[in-house]
Amino acid sequence: MEEFRHNGRDFEYCPDVDTDMSKQIAPRRKKNKKPLPTECVFCRNNGEEETYYRKHLLKDIDGRVLCPVLRAYTCPICGACGDDAHTVKYCPKGPYNPNAMSTANAFKLLRNSTGKRRSK
């Protein structure tokens, strides 16, 4: 009991407690509930042959582009290619359609917080 009062630990009941506090605990990653992709969605949606789009993935787990077709593409807006390649639709420098309304704002116009239709 005296040990617990002194440092907050009772080694009699917790003998395997590590006293080295200098070790840092790695942060936990969120569990992704989506299954891992088995094919390149970019090539599949662009009409490539099944044997081709099943040979590679669009991106790796760190978000780097793996698709050879997309890697070779250079964004005309920002000039990104390679690991950071993207189409004009996904360019972070500017929206593809500046007059488009975000999905969240579109839903706000239709219904209120209780789900009832808003009166105009």
Automatic annotation (TrEMBL):
InterPro entries: Nanos/Xcar2, Nanos_sf, Znf_nanos-typ
Gene3D superfamilies, sorted: Nanos, RNA-binding domain
Any one GO molecular-function label of the UniProt entry: RNA binding
Domain Nanos-type residue range list: 39-93
UniProt record, GO biological process: regulation of translation
Cellular compartment(s): Cytoplasm
Any one GO cellular component localisation term in the record: cytoplasm
Keywords annotated in UniProt: Cytoplasm, Metal-binding, RNA-binding, Translation regulation, Zinc, Zinc-finger
Similarity field: Belongs to the nanos family.
The name this protein goes by in its record: Nanos
Species annotation: Myrmica americana
Lineage: Eukaryota, Metazoa, Ecdysozoa, Arthropoda, Hexapoda
